Amino acid sequence: MAALSEIQALLGEPGFNWSDPAPWIELEQELGIEFPADFREIVNAYGSIKINGQLYLDHPARHLLHNLGRTIQENLELWRDEGMVEFLPSPVGGNPGELVPVATARTGEAVFLQVPDGPSSPWRVVVQEFDSPAWTLYEMTFSEWLLAYLKGRDVTLCSRNFAPDGPFYEFLS
């Protein structure tokens, strides 16, 4: 599993550093899942941010303008629409094998975490290209996927054009 320190080395020091678990507990109870530790750790460190001017991540704290819970609920509605279900490998939701929408990109991609089929199964990342019916399953954790993205590897999102001088982030206001 990619460590937060590796992500920090590429992205820069986090400026949010959230420690109160209450927003996560509330969101997890609402969705019926427990988010993977690496995803929580990254989002708690950085908060609601835009990476490389392209990838949007939100934190679940209710007082924030960009709220993960609200983002997930809006995206669940979108992806449950009859005309959208054919664009994903499985339904959206919190049941085993289903997809939880956790990030978006200004270039039209949606990033999902796939709920494990069982307690010993790992979380995986699915990226859907909104402008086409294409999706890609990545057999990696969120932190591994994000690290690959920050290194400029092809993980459906491509950061080279958006971050020619290296990865960066900015807080969403």
Sheet-strand content, in percent, reads 15-25%
Strand order of the largest sheet: 6-5-4-3-2-1-7
Largest sheet: 7 strands, antiparallel
User: What is the molecular shape?
Assistant: globular
| Continuous helix count | 5
Strands, count:
7
Kindly report how far apart the N and C termini lie. 30 Å
The helix/strand class is: alpha+beta
How is the topology of this model organized?
Elements: H1 4-11, H2 22-31, H3 37-46, E1 49-51, E2 55-57, H4 68-80, E3 99-105, E4 109-114, E5 124-129, E6 135-138, H5 142-150, E7 169-171
Antiparallel strand pairs: 1-2, 1-7, 2-3, 3-4, 4-5, 5-6
Helix pairs in contact: 1-5
Describe the structure.
The chain has 5 helices and 7 strands. The chain has helices at residues 4-11, 22-31, 37-46, 68-80, 142-150; strands at residues 49-51, 55-57, 99-105, 109-114, 124-129, 135-138, 169-171. It has a 7-stranded antiparallel beta sheet. The chain is globular, with a radius of gyration of 15 Å. The termini are far apart. The model has no long low-confidence stretch (mean pLDDT 92).
Summarize the structure.
The protein has helices at residues 4-11, 22-31, 37-46, 68-80, 142-150, and strands spanning 49-51, 55-57, 99-105, 109-114, 124-129, 135-138, 169-171. It is of the alpha+beta class.
Q: What key phrases describe this protein's structure?
A:
7 strands; alpha+beta; seven-stranded antiparallel sheet; single chain; 173 residues
